[in-house]
Amino acid sequence: MDECSVARGPGCGTDGPPRTAGADSAAAERVSRLLSGPSGLGTSAARILDALRTAPPPPSAPAPATPEPDVLAPDALAPESPEPAVPEPEAALPVLPTPLPSPTRLGGLFSPGYAEREWGDGSFPPLYCPLTARIDDDLARVVNDRLVEWAGEVGIYADQLDRFRDTGFGRLAVLAHPETDDVDALLLAAKMNAAWWACDDYYADESDLGATPTELPPRLALVMSAMDPPPDAGGYSLRLDEAVRSDPVLVALRSATAHLKRHSGPSQLMRILNTTFQMYVSWTAYAAWRHLGELPPVWRYLAARQHDSFYTSMTLIDVVGGYQLDADLFYEPRVHRAVMQAGTASVIVNDLHSVEREAADDLPDCNVVLLIAEEEGCPLEDAVRTAVAMHNDFVHGFEDSQRELAAVPSAELQRFLLGVQSWMGGCLEWHGASDRYK
């Protein structure tokens, strides 16, 4: 495979001699095989780029020497053919069907659909959300037991392991990643989420666990070095290692990242690390507001919250599923917007279930329900209804984005978007059952 099949840029376009009708047919056949065949580690995205690179130029102009069109642009996927006898482009680029094949789960992938779902005690308006794709309590118990064993080894929640077990981060992984039955892959998701939550609890949120706003920024800087070690600096690096080994939260994050490295490719690893570090910028904003005793306006909270959402957890979807979504597809603006919509919707679910717990803290967290009630001067019940409506709008937005992107001929992208849908449904299921929110 040449460099142009994995990285786009000037010179990787359509330069070359004119194509024939036979070549057009061959290109269409290649894309058709892509849509019907199995997917591997990023191969579909690379083949799409290759197909676009070799597609014939319009008859009225020679092939351009400028960079290729956006990988998701419809006119880039279906150029006009100079030969009337050639089938219409739509025939060569059918919409991907569901279910899609999955190499790690019997029965493959499927969409259970969307519905209005009751939550809490059922007294508030329902949350419009995907239905839960899989509930497998036996598998969840296996993953959760291994997670609790790991937590004991790294030292997080050392005096609260029974409570940690009942929180059920292993069950969250099974609910949110229905594409696979692989226990080790699901354990990876459980470890990463548990480590992120431990960092949040010990450093940012829970005063009784030692969280203080003024210590948060330097602690997060150390977290980043624990997950992504800096270049060796001799004796200074030894002191860094000692600091990491002395803090159970840092040990957990380093251990979970090591597990991640066994399952991910380089771009997947850096995607997850950089998204984590992006999330920490929002945490420092919350810490400043808490330290100053200020409540941010709702718009400002939401601006920070989009980068501190379950979008971070969703970056694991293809890693856990055993495939790779090409970076150019993951970061394409429409895909990015869709995943951000889903991540923000899911974190509003967290805010809704956390209101009572967070309001009771000596230094309350920012919470969209509490902020709406304060800003609007309305009862908490009205603020909850406003937050529910906001959540539902985000989910409808994701559903619209998913429908728009369904025509993109990438099996990996369709699997990933279906994984995001499944994550939202599993997230709501987990929040409704976890002892953490009772």
UniProtKB/TrEMBL annotation:
It is an enzyme of class 4 (lyase). This is Terpene synthase. The lineage of its organism: Bacteria, Bacillati, Actinomycetota, Actinomycetes, Streptosporangiales. It catalyses: (E)-2-methylgeranyl diphosphate + H2O = 2-methylisoborneol + diphosphate. Its cofactor is Mg(2+). Its EC number is 4.2.3.-. Keywords: Lyase, Magnesium, Metal-binding. Residues 55-67 have a biased composition (Pro residues). Gene3D superfamilies: Farnesyl Diphosphate Synthase. It comes from the Bacteria.
